[in-house]
Design a protein that fits this description.
Protein name: Release factor glutamine methyltransferase
Order of helices and strands: HHHHHEEHEHEHEEHHEHEE
CATH architecture of the largest domain: 3-Layer(aba) Sandwich
InterPro entries: DNA_methylase_N6_adenine_CS, HemK-like, Methyltranfer_dom, N5-glutamine_MTase, PrmC_N, RF_methyltr_PrmC, SAM-dependent_MTases_sf
Distance between the termini: 67 Å
Low-confidence stretches: none
CATH class of the largest domain: Alpha Beta
Structural class: alpha/beta
Shape: elongated
Strand content: 15-25%
Family: Belongs to the protein N5-glutamine methyltransferase family. PrmC subfamily.
Catalytic activity: L-glutaminyl-[peptide chain release factor] + S-adenosyl-L-methionine = N(5)-methyl-L-glutaminyl-[peptide chain release factor] + S-adenosyl-L-homocysteine + H(+)
Helix content: 25-40%
Number of strands: 9
Number of domains: 2
EC number: 2.1.1.297
Length: 280
């Protein structure tokens, strides 16, 4: 079968389950054939072998069932990096790049800063910061051993040696005298009763990385109250949070004694990142 015919049929199959059906179809076929997506525009008339069609159809079936493309490919682009992904943790998303942008605006590229990423998952945030701040030392922690191993592989994959990862329940495994110039986190922030947990890609992602008690704010509250023990004077704590949680996060920052509290919008115009400065 010709490439253009195969892609047309795949796109029709995926239209009802994906808002990016054409892109999904191209990415999966490129993965099977070991080519870039631009190949399809150059050689639409090339034929695909029966073996590759069978492999492609197997991936399309999994996508039709809702499995995320990133899990099917085994990797995901984030910032300037290529990040290995697995079902042990969340898939890095474009909106989270806003957290990286905000974090970078708070530090100088010339400074040798110490940075902590809480709930690092794939290590995407920590590694993006490490790539942009080569003089800095970045530590990423995660409760899940498999996620820590994955983050370490991503450091090697992207040739970054100024980021280290360890298993920890938030701050628990850190030394008591550890101090950081910046702490960032994309913690679980979805309400356990949120109907979106049964829809789309998140059905395949670990609930432990998505859900938090107290309407999704429990982990954010814990980090806000514990972080001052690990923040240097005038250092910032930076969160990604739900689109409707910015006011609640700002209020909790204020009650805990932070200053310079501010929220920033994501690509969709929603408040997605909030910062607070620890002055004491």
């Amino acid at each position: 079968m010709r490439i253009d015919e195969l892609l047309k049929g795949a796109c029709e199959r995926l239209t009802f389950i994906s808002d990016t059906a054409q892109l999904d179809a191209q990415l999966l076929l490129a993965h099977v054939l070991g080519v870039s997506a631009s190949y399809f525009y150059t050689w639409p008339e090339k034929t695909v072998s029966d073996v590759d069609i069978e492999r492609y159809n197997a991936l399309l079936v999994r996508r039709e069932l809702g499995e995320p493309v990133a899990y099917l490919l085994g990797h995901q682009a984030f910032w300037t990096l290529d990040i290995e992904v697995s079902p042990c943790t969340l898939i890095p998303r474009a909106d989270t790049e806003r957290l990286v942008e905000v974090a970078l605006s708070l530090l100088s590229t010339e400074s040798a800063s110490r940075i902590l990423d809480l709930g690092t998952g794939t290590g995407a945030i920590a590694l993006a910061l490490a790539a942009e701040l080569p003089r800095s030392n970045v530590t990423g922690v995660d409760l899940v051993d498999d996620a820590v191993a994955l983050a370490k592989r991503n450091a090697i994959r992207n040739r970054l040696n100024n980021a280290a990862f360890k298993q920890s329940s938030w701050f628990d495994a850190l030394k008591e005298d550890a101090r950081f110039d910046l702490i960032v986190s994309n913690p679980p922030y979805i309400d356990p009763d949120d109907e979106h947990l049964s829809q789309g890609d998140v059905r395949f992602e670990p609930k432990s990385a998505l859900v938090a008690d107290n309407h999704g704010l429990a982990d954010i509250e814990h980090i806000i109250h514990t972080a001052p023990n690990f923040l240097s004077p005038n250092a910032y704590l930076v969160f990604e949070h739900g689109y409707d949680q910015a006011q609640a996060v700002r209020e909790r920052f204020k009650l805990a004694g932070y200053s310079a509290i501010e929220s920033f919008q994501d690509l969709g115009g929603n408040d997605r990142v909030t910062i607070g400065k620890w002055v004491l």
